[in-house]
Automatic annotation (TrEMBL):
Pfam families: Rce1-like. This is CPBP family intramembrane metalloprotease. Residues 130-219 form the CAAX prenyl protease 2/Lysostaphin resistance protein A-like domain. Keywords: Hydrolase, Membrane, Metalloprotease, Protease, Transmembrane, Transmembrane helix. GO terms for molecular function: endopeptidase activity; metallopeptidase activity. The chain crosses the membrane at residues 12-36, 42-65, 86-107, 119-142, 163-181, 187-203, 215-232. InterPro entries: Rce1/LyrA-like_dom (IPR003675). GO terms for biological process: CAAX-box protein maturation. The keyword Ribosomal protein does not apply. The keyword Transmembrane applies.
Length: 234
């Protein structure tokens, strides 16, 4: 007698959960900016790091309350194949991002060329420990949190609506670029996001997109580290 096919565990969150996490990110950012007033080095670091951590943690909490946890719902597991895929696609994405950034900076006015993070840290000399913390956050931690929100929570919400993988990829990529709230850099962020989304789509799991995102963030994070330490001009 044949055994019945295994039942696929599904989650119970939708786009409302994603919007709630986004609103939480903005609320924490605004409260920190208002609460610190004239920010010093430490408060700048907290303002940069804490909202991202809160958003990533909230995305995980949604999966625990309304789903099966991030391992099942996001495929957030350690697979060497996913790591290799993320490294390969991330490497290609890094090259395309560097080319796109070079072209984009030629078109933009000098004062509009930096990201929101570089603008926040402009002219600020950080102590070495805080500079390294920012470097590690931008390179390793922020990609995990952003992937939990965009290629995890948002991706899963659209999959639950039975949209095709191509539509999910296209819309999540666009929302990722727009969701950074940097209108001048939206086109550049689209270039950044495409290979990261491809890594998520071809593997069906979040691990590959996290690795691809980390590969893409390494050089910008290193540049900010050197600028923050005064080793490169701002």
């Amino acid at each position: 007698m044949l055994s019945p096919p295994p039942h696929r565990r599904t989650h119970r969150w939708g786009l409302g959960a994603f919007l709630l996490v986004q609103a939480l990110f903005l609320l924490v950012s605004v409260l920190l900016a208002a609460g610190f007033g004239s920010p010093g080095a430490l408060s700048l670091v907290v303002t940069l790091v804490l909202p991202t951590l809160v958003a990533g943690g909230a995305a995980v909490l949604v999966t625990l309350v309304r789903g099966n946890g991030p391992r099942v719902d996001f495929g957030l597991r350690w697979h060497w194949q996913d790591v290799r895929t993320g490294l390969a696609i991330g490497g290609v994405g890094l090259v395309s991002t560097m080319l796109a950034t070079t072209l984009w900076m030629r078109w933009m006015e000098p004062g509009d060329a930096g990201s929101a993070v570089s603008g926040l840290l402009a002219g600020v000399r950080l102590p070495p420990a805080l500079a390294v913390l920012i470097f590690l956050h931008i390179w390793l931690v922020a990609p995990v949190c952003e992937e939990l929100v965009y290629r995890g929570l948002l991706w899963g919400a659209m999959e639950r609506m039975r949209w095709s993988q191509l539509n999910v990829f296209v819309l999540s990529t666009a929302i990722f670029a727009i969701g950074h709230l940097e209108p001048e850099r939206t086109a550049l962020l689209l270039v950044v996001a495409i290979p990261i989304g491809v890594a998520r789509m071809v593997t069906g799991r979040l691990t590959a997109s996290v690795v691809a995102h980390q590969v893409n963030n390494f050089l910008p994070a290193l540049g900010l580290l050197l600028i923050s330490l005064g080793l490169l001009p701002g």
